[in-house]
Please model this.
Amino acid sequence: MDEVHAAAGDHPDMDYAEHDRTYHLFLKLLKYGGAGVILIVILLAVLWG
Model:
């Protein structure tokens, strides 16, 4: 287990590597999803300005 995450109260079966991968995937989806929504709003403003 990674000593950085080993603290009193941590669950011994917690898979911190998987948790970190999932968190980084969430951040990536949030970033690109937000950029996509902004792009669509700009496109709509230009087309129907």
